[in-house]
Predict the 3D structure of the following.
Amino acid sequence: MDDLAYGTRDKRGHWRPNEPLDVAPILVWPWSLSKFLKWLPGYFYPYNIVFIAIACLFWFYLTPSKDSMQTLGWGWVLWIFVRNAASILILFGALELRLYIRRRQGGHFKYNPKFPAEQPSDAFFFKNQNVDNALRTFGSGVPIWTVWEVLMLHAWANGWGPWTLFGDSPFWLIGFGLMIPIIHEVHFYCIHRLIHVPVLYKWVHSVHHNSINPSPWSSLSMHPVEHLIYWSDTLIHLILPSHPLLLLYHFQVNSTGAVIGHIGFDKIETGADSGVDTHAFGHYLHHKYFEVNYADGTIPIDKWFGTWHDGTPEGDRLMKERFQRKKARRTSPPEDAG
Ligand SMILES: [Zn+2]
Ligand SMILES: [Zn+2]
């Protein structure tokens, strides 16, 4: 595919799409049914369909019995860890292999012309972004995700919380399931703003931002404190009536789903004239410019708070103006109290 038919590449080789990023037409005014219907398939395809399928696979075939999960024991806890680690290794690994190791489409549709393997940096363990990201993913990310999942499944197995059955509340559970990516995004926005507070940024969130040029391994490469709060959105299943299949879907959305913003390519080419949109550009801009696009635009929170960047030169201009205003506020002398 010719990526220059879809975007432009600047002198330094950075590619950006021609079409400005837009927020989902859910909470925008004037509301348009035709825009909503045009957007809706992209809410499911490609990602959420995959996450639902993996959640079903996990629930029906790869989750221990309710009886065994009533008591905490190393056997089933380790099984869940291995199953989660394997899913990340296979899914993130497949993307890495295709796009970053075999480089099947070269730099086509790649936002940043460089590949992380070519950029050693002291910011990373062993000066290597891929090794650092993988160590953090499997060393603290997957273990902490597993602890959250184990505690939630243990609560379900013991009947702690308002758990229900599909036969008893089908419409509620389907509606709740449809909302899970949005619930995750709102929660992520809140904790994300929190860890951008300078002291927490320096101590915690800078670890994730070391990957200015992210690849799939960057998705769950975070400080353990960020890992600890990252999965806390699943506590909602102890507040609202839920089913463990929805819980496992939620863990797919917030675990495997973290890869969406870190693919580094705008399309994954599937043939000479075909490709799948990744929806990675919004979060790529967050990694590039830090103080834009804290959420992913399903809910227009960044627009409401003035931090939205649509990826265009006009978006660059608005961002620079905002940064200058912020700098001026910081450097201006304090108001005269008298
Ligand atoms: Zn990120
Ligand atoms: Zn951030």
